[in-house]
Amino acid sequence: MDVYEAVRSRRSVRGFLDKPVPDEVLTRVLTTALRAPSGGNLQPWRVYVLSGAKLAELKYLVRERITDGDTGDPPQVLPYPETLPEQYARRIEELGALRYGAVGIAREDRAGRERVRVRNWDFFGAPVGLFCYLSEQMLPPQWLDAGMFLQTVMVLLRAEGLDSCAQIAWGRYHRSVTEIAEPPAGHVLGCGMSIGYADPDEPRPAIPRASLAEVVTFRS
């Protein structure tokens, strides 16, 4: 698979097969992804990969919290600005309509939407979970670096025939993630990621992207 096809075929997959991911594939992907650009060569990301018993333990902890009515931890990082310009708010709304509509959940069905959302904390059935942390001292440029690293991981996973879903939703239960991942003190959870082989029966609605003219200006 060439790099263009890997980028084009990368999607946020929300349904995975119960099929193990070989350790050597994960090692190859993550080793190569370390070549991602990094300002000042800081390489500010700290990555934790969970599978097997540790993955099951984390899912159990969060499932128990949800069952007990725990709605989550105080956010370390807000996922979006409190007030979004109209064009961005519209995109979020369109995404929700497509995502929930694909599984037959109406907009007004809050309980149904929550049942779908809860699947985040089961990694959508994926056999591998990845978490990316940064030191709380890091600034927006270092968060950009971490994003480039994570994008590189996701593209390389496609090259290996795997799929993924980057999940800011894990920030909602970041204390449980930290309990299992055990990052150094003073580190903030950037996001989680589900990794595995996509379930071909899981609905995958086409998500529209902005046109080139909307986001790119050529000047010469």
Automatic annotation (TrEMBL):
The lineage of its organism: Bacteria, Bacillati, Actinomycetota, Actinomycetes, Pseudonocardiales. It comes from Amycolatopsis halotolerans. It comes from the Bacteria. Keywords: Flavoprotein, FMN, Oxidoreductase. InterPro entries: Nitroreductase, Nitroreductase-like, Nitroreductase/BluB. Residues 7-197 form the Nitroreductase domain. This is Nitroreductase.
